[in-house]
Amino acid sequence: MFLSLGWLSAVFAGILCAHVLQKICFPYFWRDLFFLLKVMRYGVRLEVYKLKSEVRTVLDRFIQQAQRIPDKPFVIFEGHAHTYRDVEERSNKFAHIFQQNTNLKKGDCVALLMNNEPDFLCVWFALAKIGCSIAFLNTNIKSRSLLHCFTSCGAKTLVVGSDVADLLDGFLTTLLEDNIEVWAMKKSSDHPRVHTLMDKVAAASDKPLPAVSVTTNIKTPTLYIFTSGTTGLPKAAVISHLQSLKAAGGFWAFGGTQDDIIYIPLPLYHSAASLIGIGGTIELGATCVLKKKFSASQFWKDCRQYNVTIFQYIGELCRYLCNQPKTELDKIHQVRMGVGNGLRQDVWRDFQNRFGNIKMCEVYGSTEGNLCFMNHVGKIGTVGRSNFVYKLLFKYDLVKYDMIRDEPEKDEHGFCKRVKHGETGLLLSKVSALSPFFGYAGSKQLTEKKIMRNVFVKGDAYVNTGDLMVEDQDGFICFRDRVGDTFRWKGENVATTEVTETLGLVDFIQEVNVYGVEVPGHEGRAGMAAVIVRPGHTFDGEKLFDCVAKDLPGYARPLFIRLQEVMEMTSTFKQQKFHLVQSGFDPSSISEPLYVIDYKLESYVPLTDSVYQSILRGERKL
């Protein structure tokens, strides 16, 4: 009797000690375990699809939900609810119209140029139903970039929203000469060769099309989403059915349910809104509130009106919300979770202090990338969490990066050098069967430029994310900075090469070096250009403004100009950006002439100390 009691006491003491030890040494063990098991369960389902060649796409899941919950609101837009049945039947109508009035066939690519609205989804699903891949075009980009987008993804058909049809002005003739068939979401068109959709909807059948095997391979491209990548004009990131399905599991992995109301204020042409937002809503069988355009003043009103429980964000969005005037209703809402990326530590704390203890779930991953981090713990300031199991499944490394030379450091054998825990390094993700890299459409060279080979051993291959990260002893991963020729502003990636090429067209500019600088109180980096003026010319702020306003979207326009006599170069003859980035735009510490964009005067004007101080105080809008 006494022996058994002693044995039980010893076992209990051992369990208690193990529990205490786990709490001290491995405080996140159980949360990591349950989260990983959940994610792995979803992943196993996708692997079964591949093994059985039994493809279940996001579209298949939508059709399944439309049959299961036909009368449940799928999308709420501008006060009107569109049920799963509504969107299913309307997409069928569009599919019949395309099938009967075009030469589109399975495998063709169609470009979609539309702002957020329910018909964006209906056209997207309709084209998928007839076996087409769809290229989502950014409605902010200008004609030169739009034409490039068609070439890179091989699209021969364009569907354009009624409210963005004016973007075609000036290059519609070029599209038609290139045999691009243009369809407008209108009832009539002034141009005889522009086809119209809305006049054909009423007469179209809403019945499902005859069963078409959209794909037999889960790795087949289904979408092309344009990203700046690291250099040059926009690149068409290839999105396979596999990637779409992975992204659609995001809300579910973080604890989303079919009862959630999801607020999507981000543009659908970005992967966050389309793949995670819409795909995630479909996977759950939930309802989303789709906003045409983000409005900081209407955000919480919408959340209260529609009983929103989850919202999507980028870091800049949360900062805008924190900058709104405080009200007594700030914590009166049902929002429990935010899912997004790019949330700064200071904004994160301010946001939760002001609007309540909302769980902020950071997700790290580029549109075209093969790696994803998820901060399921909710630790402030981290983009994700890793552990030994995760590293077994997804191979990644942080390597030392020389900021002066703008390249990874190499050892005596020519291989990259790993950083230690707590040190900042360039994030590389291994290309493997479990983590394939689909790259970009249109050119193998673009995809190859994103891959680093012979990184640690001969023959290996890693995707260069272009991001500097740090991983601490507990496995939390923090974003530090971007390298190369891309920076982020207003929630958009800005490719410095594209901006450089645009500024290079100005007659008084001889050489340009574009980079991003930090602005206190703002997320990301604002565009700045170091410029050398041609001999015999003078700087013309109005002419430069006209050029950038005409050819660049608002987020890509350089806010600051720095005039230089000599452009600093690296030892490998690349333009030196490091010192320029470090010196910023403070006129008191830079002897060279500085200018700032002025939208009221429609010019670049001298950046004086008083203007600089007004920017720091947040009085001058950027």
Automatic annotation (TrEMBL):
It is an enzyme of class 6 (ligase). It is a multi-pass membrane protein. Keywords: Cell membrane, Fatty acid metabolism, Ligase, Lipid metabolism, Lipid transport, Membrane, Nucleotide-binding, Transmembrane, Transmembrane helix, Transport. GO terms for biological process: long-chain fatty acid import into cell. It comes from the Eukaryota. It is found in: Cell membrane. Its EC number is 6.2.1.3. One of its GO terms (molecular function) is nucleotide binding. GO terms for cellular component: endoplasmic reticulum membrane; plasma membrane. Residues 64-386 form the AMP-dependent synthetase/ligase domain. InterPro entries: AMP-bd_C, AMP-bd_C_sf, AMP-binding_CS, AMP-dep_synth/lig_dom, ANL_N_sf. Its main location: membrane. Gene3D superfamilies: 3.30.300.30, N-terminal domain of ligase-like. It catalyses: tetracosanoate + ATP + CoA = tetracosanoyl-CoA + AMP + diphosphate; a very long-chain fatty acid + ATP + CoA = a very long-chain fatty acyl-CoA + AMP + diphosphate; a long-chain fatty acid + ATP + CoA = a long-chain fatty acyl-CoA + AMP + diphosphate. Residues 501-574 form the AMP-binding enzyme C-terminal domain. The keyword Ligase applies. PANTHER family: LONG-CHAIN FATTY ACID TRANSPORT PROTEIN (PTHR43107), LONG-CHAIN FATTY ACID TRANSPORT PROTEIN 6 (PTHR43107:SF10). Belongs to the ATP-dependent AMP-binding enzyme family. This is long-chain-fatty-acid--CoA ligase. It comes from Mugilogobius chulae (yellowstripe goby).
